[in-house]
Write a structure and sequence with these properties.
Blueprint (H helix, E strand, L loop, with lengths): L1 H32 L2 H8 L3 H8 L2 H29 L6 H21 L1 H12 L17 H17 L9 H25 L8 H19 L10
């Protein structure tokens, strides 16, 4: 029994090290150019063990993406559940606080996980060709279902004049997420254009995050403050 537990612990340690190394390689090279040999060298585990655990390169990529996805959802799930699943009444000010909190959490996650941002950038360049091959989660863990829930909530807010009527809720969610991702992704470019400034410092990231919050809130909230949103 003790030996079995030791093997399980060793397996967990090995998988974690392999996924961490793979995340770095996929972020640096993209899925197409990444090599399992490089992952093996970076992790300190041989290729045969990697294939034993993950099947192939796509299986390893799936594990890396799922790992990042679960980390992000752990940060956001409580915020979403409090409003989207537990119900309750929310007015314009409460909606403003809710939306600002979601933006801050999402921005902070992207800023603290630049490798994930780079992986997403590679996917964008390649037309999300590898993401299309990944099996989609079902039920409450499905990203589309979560996205739809948020969009439906924004649709209710729009119907009650909490947010401006001209906004498409689906596009609004997508644009908010992309603003956070593209800012983090563009920091090296900003640094080239304005070398006298440090865009990656904690203070600069805080300023950028709050500017996105203000931009979204001032742009989407209805002028009159709206009604009560359930």
């Amino acid at each position: 029994m003790v030996q079995k537990h030791r093997r399980e612990r060793d397996s967990q340690v090995a998988k974690a090290a392999i996924k961490a190394a793979a995340e770095e390689i996929f972020a640096r090279d993209g899925f197409g150019a990444a090599r399992v040999d490089a992952v093996a060298e970076a992790s300190g585990y041989n290729k045969s063990l990697i294939f034993q655990y993950f099947g192939d390169k796509l299986g390893l990529y799936k594990a890396v993406v799922q790992r990042c996805k679960e980390q992000l959802e752990d940060d956001l799930i409580q915020i979403m559940n409090d409003k989207l699943e537990n119900g309750g009444t929310i007015n314009a000010e409460q909606f403003r606080i809710f939306l600002a909190t979601v933006i801050r959490q999402y921005f902070d996650y992207q800023a603290n996980h630049p490798r994930l941002v780079h992986i997403l950038a590679w996917e964008m360049v390649e037309g999300w060709s590898t993401f299309k091959l990944l099996p989609q989660a079902e039920g409450p863990h499905c990203f589309r279902n979560k996205f739809v829930k948020v969009s439906q909530f924004l649709e209710e807010a729009r119907a009650l004049n909490v947010i401006r009527a001209e906004f498409d809720p689906v596009l609004l969610v997508a644009h908010i997420l992309n603003m956070c991702i593209f800012h983090v992704l563009s920091i090296p470019r900003y640094q080239i254009n304005f070398p006298e400034r440090d865009f990656s410092s904690p203070e600069a990231l805080l300023q950028a995050r709050e500017q996105i919050v203000l931009l979204v809130l001032h742009g989407v909230m209805a002028p009159e403050g709206g009604n009560t949103c359930n």
